[in-house]
Backbone:
């Protein structure tokens, strides 16, 4: 089956969910999520079955890269993230319903819930296409497909001021970054005379090219990309949007949107890094960006009391490690390289998916029983629900980078890459960031296990649906497995 | 007679448009005005694309790739406005304001 069928299937799945919502009388609209979950599971299985066409001639292949295992890996990340986001959305739907309550008499009691299961599917198709985009036009269109779907999802709770505020902030800053990105694209097209990334790479490697104009285009594009991946100083939207958005959507933003942002960053930076005249300056800019992101993400997370906001800063901190890997890109004329930044970034994002989604899944499960998302509301959780507390402990340990978890190897590969390319400054800042991470992640674990529960809370055990339990278990097992044997994820990158 | 307009003229105008749009986004407080300024930034990118496309002649034709991207940008901008205005209206219904300085319930 040709690989681009997968995107078509996902879009069709989204349309099916919308149509079933509109024309079939459902008692419980949460069954729509099951259509999405089962469909995505099939698509995930099909990822291992796809084949590349023998000939990649023709108009379509100008917009879609072929024969590329990295693209497949990122498609897998997109599908898996969307699947788990739908699992979360099922648990979270009582909260969504409360915040979009429809006052009209005679309306379905769950009116307006169906779209929240369809929108992630459309975003997923965009994320999958982003992984294969190899032309400025397809990069732009796929990126915007995702971004516009996210505008709606972030502002989905339309009776909730926090969600709307997050939606407006995301809208303005997202549109601003799009402005920078397309202006950069226009200049890149102007100086290279092509929209095709491979042709752009050839044109940029030409020594007669004016490096100042190329750097101008690079700066504009980097501003746009830094917004999407949440690198300092363009991270300001992240804490507010993450805190205000519905929790499943926060998880989607933090994993799906970031992973896809990094794949197009890798693709767009490759031509600039391949140009001998620009290489050193680009690496310098990336190094500064990585240092700033590592410092801001890790240090600003230290005093956070809201758990969602803490995870927002944590996602900035992880973006810092990922940009650090980008800044360690080897010079083409350099010596033998055992690790490539592509592989390191792909592995890191794979591990990041597992541990971040685990944290968010625990958070959505708890949200219906424990009001609020403050750190203190999780005090003594181990006594109420040992299983959820253990899941959160594994997730926090992995995010911090404790050995025997997937997160450890993610950080280990980044540091190994920094040593290999002799980026000592970056290594120092990376270690500072990782050390700060231990403090704020493990503080949560300590408060869950060693503090007493808040006085006013009831001690009733927390119910977990079977689907959530299976997902939690799968994520825990994968984190530990990848922590002992990183080949589990590395093997998929190819 | 040779045309007096060169590529640089168009690039200067589009850079000015981009700067005006960016300044508006950063300085103005009304959400609707900010949104208009964002559209101005996209228009700047469009003008740059058309200019580069027109002056980059290949085989006697302009390089049409740039103009194709322009149509995609216009389409996406329209979709963005549709969603964006809906969000701004929803915000206005709950907060009765479009002033960005009053949209600040979340802080450090």
Residues:
């Amino acid at each position: 089956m040709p690989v681009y069928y997968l995107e078509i299937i996902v879009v069709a799945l989204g349309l099916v969910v919308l149509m079933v919502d509109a024309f079939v009388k459902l008692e419980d609209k949460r069954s729509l999520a099951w259509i999405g979950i089962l469909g995505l599971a099939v698509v995930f299985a099909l990822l291992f079955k796809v084949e590349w066409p023998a000939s990649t001639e023709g108009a379509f292949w100008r917009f879609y890269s072929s024969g590329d295992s990295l693209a497949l890996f990122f498609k897998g990340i997109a599908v898996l993230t969307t699947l788990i986001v739908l699992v979360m959305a099922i648990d979270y739907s009582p909260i969504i319903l409360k915040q979009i309550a429809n006052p009209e008499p005679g309306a379905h009691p769950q009116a307006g819930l169906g779209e929240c299961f369809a929108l992630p599917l459309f975003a997923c198709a965009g994320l999958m296409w982003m992984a294969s985009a190899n032309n400025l036009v397809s990069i732009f269109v796929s990126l915007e497909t995702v971004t516009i779907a996210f505008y709606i999802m972030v502002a989905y709770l339309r009776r909730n001021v926090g969600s709307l505020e997050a939606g407006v902030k995301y809208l303005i800053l997202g549109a601003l970054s799009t402005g920078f990105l397309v202006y950069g694209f226009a200049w890149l097209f102007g100086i290279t005379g092509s929209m095709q990334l491979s042709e752009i790479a050839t044109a940029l490697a030409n020594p007669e090219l004016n490096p100042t104009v190329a750097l101008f285009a690079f700066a504009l594009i980097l501003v746009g990309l830094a917004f999407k991946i949440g690198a300092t100083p363009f991270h300001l939207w992240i804490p507010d949007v993450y805190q205000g958005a519905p929790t499943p959507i926060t998880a989607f933003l933090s994993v799906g949107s970031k992973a896809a942002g990094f794949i197009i960053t890798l693709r767009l930076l490759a031509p600039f890094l391949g140009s001998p005249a620009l290489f050193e300056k680009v690496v310098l800019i990336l190094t500064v960006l990585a240092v700033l992101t590592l410092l801001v993400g890790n240090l600003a997370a230290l005093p956070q009391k809201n758990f969602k906001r803490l995870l927002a800063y944590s996602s900035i901190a992880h973006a810092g490690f990922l940009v650090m890997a980008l800044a360690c890109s080897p010079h083409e004329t350099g010596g033998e390289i055992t690790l490539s930044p592509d592989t390191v970034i792909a592995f890191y994002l794979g591990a990041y998916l597992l541990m971040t989604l685990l944290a968010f899944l625990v958070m959505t499960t708890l949200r219906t029983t424990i009001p609020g998302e403050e750190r203190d509301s999780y005090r003594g959780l181990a006594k109420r629900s040992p299983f959820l507390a253990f899941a959160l402990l594994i997730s926090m340990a992995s995010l911090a980078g404790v050995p025997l978890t997937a997160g450890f190897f993610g950080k280990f590969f980044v540091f190994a890459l920094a040593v290999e390319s002799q980026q000592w400054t970056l290594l120092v800042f990376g270690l500072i960031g990782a050390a700060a991470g231990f403090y704020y992640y493990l503080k949560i674990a300590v408060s869950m296990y060693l503090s007493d529960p808040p006085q006013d809370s009831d001690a009733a055990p927390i119910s977990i649906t079977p689907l959530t339990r299976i997902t939690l278990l799968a994520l825990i097992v994968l984190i530990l497995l990848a922590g002992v044997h990183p080949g589990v994820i590395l093997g998929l990158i190819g | 007679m040779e045309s007096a307009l060169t590529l640089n003229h168009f690039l200067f105008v589009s850079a000015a448009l981009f700067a005006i749009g960016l300044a508006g986004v950063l300085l103005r407080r009304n959400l609707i005005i900010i949104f208009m300024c964002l559209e101005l930034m996209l228009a700047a990118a469009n003008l740059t694309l058309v200019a580069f496309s027109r002056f980059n002649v290949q085989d006697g034709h302009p390089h049409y790739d740039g103009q194709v991207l322009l149509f995609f940008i216009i389409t996406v901008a329209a979709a963005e406005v549709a969603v964006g205005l809906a969000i701004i209206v929803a915000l206005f219904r709950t907060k009765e304001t479009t002033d960005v300085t009053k949209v600040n319930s979340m802080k450090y």
Remarks:
- Chain B has one domain: 7-102.
